[in-house]
Amino acid sequence: MIIAVDPGVSGGISVHYYNCASYEIHKIPVGRDSILALFQLLKKRALGKKVQCWIEAQPKTTGRKRPESRAIVQGENYGFVQMAALACGFNIVDVTPQKWQNGLGVSCPKLSYEKRKKKFQADAINIYKGRIIPKKIIQQVADSLLILEYAKRMEKFI
Questions:
Q1: Which ranges of 4-155 would DSSP assign to H, the alpha helix?
Q2: How far apart are CA 87 and CA 123, in angstroms?
Q3: Fewer Cβ close by (within 10 Å): the C or N end of the chain?
Q4: pLDDT lower than 70: segments of the chain
């Protein structure tokens, strides 16, 4: 199983079960208990098989354009996801946004935040249309789906 996580305030979690043609998506749960509960459920569904948890690494600074309150929630979510993955015995792989975006050829640093998110949603729809449970790909889960696609490509090398 591969789990891909965008731990942002409006992030998402995407799941790929090995040897399965469909994918599962979730909005990032609110709070550590909810994140842990989802990861425990995913652990049960993994049926004892290897689980790789690819988590988008968070920047060390808030940056000029990111409100500090948003950065705090992202940092908390990142920590909660890491701890839930560790508690479930998952292998953790941190990946920076630059690495997965460049690896998929979707990097667009000059676009505004809103335009970039719409582009990533369109990219995710293009890759995963018709193979998602639930079927609608919203902006909130688009980054995690693209991280999942990057992880699937990189898994061949791990």
A1: 32-45, 68-87, 97-104, 113-128, 139-155
A2: 32
A3: C
A4: 59-70, 133-134, 157-158
How many other C-beta atoms lie within 10 A of the C-beta of residue 156? 6
**C-beta separation of 10 from 28 below 8 A:** yes
CATH hierarchy code of domain 2-155: 3.30.420.10
Please tell me the predicted confidence (pLDDT) of residue 157: 52
Q: Report long-range pairs for 127-135 (Cβ below 8 Å, ≥24 apart).
A: 128/23, 131/21, 131/22, 131/23, 132/22, 132/23, 132/24, 132/25, 133/22, 133/23, 133/24, 133/25, 134/25
- As given in the structure block, the two tokens for residue 34 are 């909810």
Taking only the tens place, the pLDDT of each residue in 64-92 is 666 666 677 788 889 999 999 999 999 99
**Average pLDDT over the chain, rounded to an integer:** 88
Q: Where are the domains of the chain?
A: 2-155
Looking at residue 67, its pLDDT comes to 62
35-71 core/surface letters (b: 16 or more CB in 10 A; e: else): bbebbeebbeebeeeebbbbbbebeeeeeeeeeeeeb
How far, in Å, CA of 5 to CA of 95, rounded? 10
Alpha-carbon span 15 to 108, nearest angstrom: 25
